[in-house]
Amino acid sequence: TYSKKYAGISHVPEFKSGIRFDFSVIAGLYRYKPVIPNVLLHSDYYPWDSNNDLTRYTFRSELAWKDEAYADVEYNVVDSSTVLIAIRCVNNTALPKNLDINLMAYLDYPENYPLQTISKPENVLWKNAVDYKSLSFAKPGPRDNLIYDGAIDGEIRHSDFLDGRAISKSFGQTPGNKLAYDVNLGKDHTSGFVSVLYRMKANTGNVFNTGGLTSHKIVLKGTGKLEQVMIPYTVSKAGVHTLTFESQGGADVEFNGFFITKSKDQPQLIPLVRNFRPEITENLSDKNIILKYKEIDTYYGVSWEFNDAWVREFNNDELDIYLRRHFNNHTNKVFNGNGKGHFSNVYIRPVELDAHDKQTIYAMVCTGTYEGVKKRLAELDKAKRAAIDKKNRELAAAAKVLPEGEKYEFGRKIMQTTLLTNILYPIYTQDSYIRHFTPGKWYTSLYTWDSGFTALGLNEINTKMAIENINAYTTSGDNQNAFIQHGTPVPVQIYAFYDLWNKTQSREMLTYFYPRLKKYYEFMAGRFGSSTTRTLKSNLLKTWDYFYNSGGWDDYPAQVTVHEQKATKTVAPVANTAHSIRLAKMLKLAATALGEKKDLAKYDEDIRLFSEALQTHSWNDTSGYFSYVVHDDNGNPVGHFKDPVSKKDHNMGLDGAYPLFAGICTPEQEQILLEKIFSEKHMWTPTGICVVDQSAPYFKPVGYWNGSVWMPHQWFTWKAMLDLGRADLAHKIAQKALDIYKREVDASYSTFEYYSAKTGRGAGWHQFAGLTAPVINWFSAYYKPGTVTTGFEIWIDKQSFNKDLSSYEGRFSFDQTVKPHQRSLLVCMNPDYKYRIKLNGRNIEADNPYPGMLQITLPALNQDAVLTVDPVK
Q: Is the pTM of this model over 0.90?
C-alpha cells in the first residue's frame, strides 16, 4: 500500500534506489465500467477494514453506489514474500451482473531517480557533492540546526543530476562558504585530474578555490546545462586525502560533484534507461505468471483461482484514462501507449453474479528466487486456508466495545484503515528513503504536526508503529537537526509520547526518547543551536523563521495579517509560547521519573519566564483573550496586535485561549476563556469548536480554518478540560466530534480534513487521517474497555487491569508547577459491573453516564496517589 498511483500492496526489494514493486486489483462491471483505485483522486474506492498490524486490510470498490454492487479487495500478508488476495464480488440488486477483475503488477521509480549515468564508471572515481565531510557557511542562519525535511544541509534533489542530488541552496552565492571531502586514492590514482560537474543559469559565473588535494582557482560559467571543468592534481602516496571547495561569491551554483580521472578525457554522461517492462513467463495452464525486472534481483509471481483469464500488457504510465479508453478492446494482448510505464495484467472475466449473489476469487503475489516463486505459486490453496484461519482468530479475539459505542464502530474502523494505509514509499529524509505515514496519499512528504496526530491515533492501534512514527521526527544528540520539520512546527510528537507513556509505562522507551524530546523542546524554546524562536526581549516565542503557520491554522486571521504586513520580526503569537510552557511541564515530569535532576531548574525557569511574558504582555482585558504582541525594532513589547480594519483585538480565537491549555491562567481568566470556547456566540458551533470567534469582525464562515471545525485543536481543548476537572466539558467536545464524524462517514465513507461549522459536512481531502485521527482517541477513551485517559497534568507511574477489565489500579504523579486543584480522568471498564472507586484508600465518587464509563474527578492534590477501581459485589 506504499503506492502513490493505485491502491493495493507494495514490495520494496531494497531501500537504496527507491524502486518499488506494486500490485493492484481493478474491479469493474464487465466491459463497461472499471473502478480504478487512484489514490490521488476520489475514485470510488474506500479504505474499509484492517487489523492492527496491517497484515490484513481491505479496500472497497463501489461498482454501483451505494453498495448495490461492489468488490471488497482484501490483502492478507502471509509472510514477508507472499500475499494472498481475496476479491469478494457482491451483487445486491434484483438483476444479474457480470464483473471483471484486472490484476495489475507494475514497477515505480522515485521522483528524483537520475536521468543520466556515466559511460565507464570503472575508469573513474565519482564523489557526489552531497557526500561531504563538512560544510560550513560564512554567515550562520536560523536553519543551520533545522534543515527542512531532515535533508542533508545544502542538498537539492532533481533527476537531472547524477544520483538525483547535488549541493546548492545558495551555497555558491556567499564568499567563504566551504565544502570539504575525504578522497580515497588508490595506487593507480596518485596523479590525474579532478573534473567538477556543475550547472548554472546561462550567462552567469562564479569561482571556486580548491585546497588540500590540489590548489587551483576554478572558473565556472553557466550554460543552463550540466558542465565539467578539469584541474590537475598530484600526490606522493595513495590513501585518504582532503579536497576542499570554497566559494568566492557570485551566481548560484548547482554543484553535482566531481570525478577523479587518470586522463584529460572528461567522463561522458549517457541516458539512464528506466526498465519498466519485465520478462513475462506465462503458465496459463497452471494459472500463474512469473515476472523478472532488470533492476531487481528477485522474481515476482502472480497466481489466481479462475478459469477464464488471460495475460495482457499496457505500455503506458497511467490507467485512469488509458484503460478506460481501451476497456472494450477484448482482442489485443499488448496495448502500446506512451511507453513511460508498464502494467502486467491478468484479465479475469466474466465473473457472473445472479441477483443478490456473491462470489470470492482468490489470487496470490509472491517474490523470491525463480524456483522459490514457482514453488510458492502452486501453494495458493494452502495460503488461502491459512489466511482464513488467521482472520477468524483475529475476529474472535477482537477487543469488545461498550454497547453505547457500537454505533461509532463503523467510523472507527474506516478511520483506522485510512490511517494505517496512508503510508508511502519512498519518502526521503536523513540521507535515505523510508516508508512513512502521511496525512493522506495526496501529501508526498513528512508533515510534522499532522504526523504527531497520526502517532496519537496509532497509540490506540499499534504501539510499535506509534513509536516508529514519533522516532521518525526526533533526532539523536549528534544529529545536526533538532528534529525533523516539515510544515507547522507544533511539537505534537511530545504530546503523543506523553500519552504513550501513560499507556505503557515503558522505562526503555522513556530512556530512549527523553534526550531526543528534550532537544526538540529546547529548539522550540530558543535554547538550542541556530534557533531564533526567542529573539524578542519579552521572552515571547515565534516560529515565523521556520514556517508561515504558527499553530496549524492556515488562514487564521491574525497570522494572515502578520504576513501581509511583513511583521514576522516584531509580532509574536500566543500558541508557540503556550505550547512551550505545557511541553516544559510534561518533560519535567519525565525528567523527574528518570532522575534527571539537572534539567529541572531549566524547565522551571522557562515555565516562569514564558508564563510571566504571556500574563504581562499578552492578556487583553478588553477582548477577554490573550493577544498577539507587537514589538519595536529592538525587540521591546509595545502593545497588542489589532485588526487593521476594525481596530479590535486580532486574536479572538483559539490562539488567544491557548494559555488555558498551558495551565497558567488566573481563575478569572479561566472562566472568561471557558465562556468564549463554549458559548454559541463565540467559538461553539453546531459542529463543535471553531478556531475563530464567531463574533469577531474577521470571522469568515467559508474559510479553510476560519469558519470551519477541525479535530486537532479540539483534542487539545479536550485534554485541557480534563486538567481543569471539567469532565463534563471534555465529554461535550468528544461526543459532538464523534457524532459529526459518524454522520459524515456513514453518508460518504470518507474521512475528511475538516467540517463546516454550519452544516457539519466534511470537506478537504476525502481520505485524510493525520489531523482527523483524534476520533480514534475519543472512541477509545469513552467506549474501549481497558483505556485510561488523563489530561496533561497526570503522570501514570504504574497501572494494571485484571483479565476481564473489571478491576484497575493506578499510581499517579502530578504536575507540581501549579497549585493543587481538581483534575479529571476517564477509566473505561467492563460494562457488566458497578464499581467502587478509592483514592489512597478513601472512597470517591465518579460520574457513570453509561455502564463501563467512569468520569473520575480527583480532589485538589499534588502529592503522589493510588487510584483503585473494583467491582461492587
A: yes
User: Who's near 210: CB < 8 A, 6+ residues apart?
Assistant: 194, 216, 217, 218, 231, 243, 244, 245, 246
Q: How far apart are the first and last CA of the chain?
A: 49
**Residue position matching grid coordinates 472475466:** 349
3-state SS of 741-770 is HHHHHHHHCCECCEEECCCCCEECCCECCH
| Residue whose grid cell is 541556530 | 530
The grid coordinates of residue 83 equal: 500475499
Among 824, 861, 869, 653, which Cα is nearest to 732's? 824
Confidence at 375, pLDDT banded by 50, 70, 90: very high
Residue length of the chain = 873
Cell 566559494: give the residue: 247
Helix (H) or strand (E) holding 593: helix 575-594
Q: Which residue has the cell 482585558?
A: 621
* C-alpha to C-alpha distance for 291 and 367, rounded to whole angstroms: 9
Q: Report long-range pairs for 404-410 (Cβ below 8 Å, ≥24 apart).
A: 404/783, 404/850, 404/853, 405/779, 405/782, 405/783, 405/784, 407/742, 408/738, 408/742, 408/779, 408/783, 410/742, 410/745, 410/746
How far apart are the C-alpha atoms of 260 and 269, rounded to whole Å? 15
Report how far residue 364's alpha carbon sits from residue 381's, in angstroms, rounded to the nearest whole number: 10
pLDDT digits (tens, 9 = 90+) for 844-863: 999 999 999 999 999 999 99
Considering only CA atoms, which of 457, 530, 522 is closest in space to residue 496?
A: 457
pLDDT digits (tens, 9 = 90+) for 154-183: 999 999 999 999 999 889 999 999 999 999
Q: In the prediction, which pLDDT does 120 show?
A: 73
Predicted confidence at residue 692, as pLDDT, reads 98
Q: Model confidence over 794-835: pLDDT tens digits?
A: 999 999 999 999 999 999 999 999 999 999 999 999 999 999
Residues 6+ apart with CB under 8 A from 557: 643, 650, 653, 692, 696, 698, 699, 706
> What is residue 738's three-state secondary structure?
helix
Contacts of 787 (CB under 8 A, 6+ apart): 460, 780, 781, 826, 827, 828
